[in-house]
Amino acid sequence: MQVNLDEAAxxxxxxxxxxxxxxxDEAKRLSQPHGDALVVELEIAKHKVMRNLIDxxxxxxxxxxxxxxxxKLPDKTLKLVKNPLRGFSGNEVMPLGRIxxxxxxxxxxxxxxxxVNFLVVDSPSVYNTIIGRETLHALHAVASTxxxxxxxxxxxxxxxxxxxxxxxxxxxxxxxxxxSQRTEPTSTKRHNPGxxxxxxxxxxxxxxxxxxxxQLGSLDPRDDFYEQRGSPVEDLEEVQLSPDEPGKTFKxxxxxxxxxxxxxxxxLRKHENDFAWTHHDISGIDPIVMVHSLAVDLKARxxxxxxxxxxxxxxxxxxxxxxxxxxxxxxxxx
Length: 334
Description:
Largest sheet: 6 strands, mixed, barrel
Number of helices: 6
Oligomer: single chain
Structural class: alpha+beta
Distance between the termini: 57 Å
Shape: extended
């Protein structure tokens, strides 16, 4: 059952009296401690959209143009906006327009349907939308970034939208390591409609059985940003574990102080045989623990792939690695 919040006050006048609580058990599923944002998946205009930031600090609901085009919404649906958006640093962005879309929060039977007035903004972002205070207040919702949960009252109980901690961390890393933003405005670049899969346009949909929903989260945000390889937060020093075997080394932080530094080195030297230093040290995994299998049709005719060309240095490196694996018994010629 979905609740249209435009009629919620009439059909469910006492929804404010339903207690909304969060427990410590709900936070045990998360990696702690954390400072992650609340990023959720929502149904927007009959599409399944990922990477939606729940931001109680935003006075507006934002739909970024990349998602706007992927939703295949016509430009004529945009209504004129006269006032710019202002950030806390004082910078201004003029929205391309305003559009009202139906957004479903939660899962059946505790769902809520909200008509959200999105401002369409042509600005690079790792998110598809930002859900601000206006919609959160319409939902009577309570967001907990500690639990990475959004809860709201419905006639059938408390609706819950579960955030994705891993997605939140990926988006934060992309945003903070971005060194260059795209120079082409997104409003002039439309994406291939074939990249999207439109869901049915009927008024009432059982979202629990939808399998063909668009996944805007599959759009790689690195199209908009250049990601740098991560680096250690401090300089490292190389420590040799055994004077008889110079190849066995570890790297530890230079800022590590005594006696912790000495204890760590002692611990690593004591357990040096627990690490795989060569391919021969990798004896395999017991099938009781894990088995990797390929779903191959034995009746299918094998097809040899086209040989790829590499430069001589790459060929030498490939051959050396293959010889190591063959010698260790990890692979064999068939």
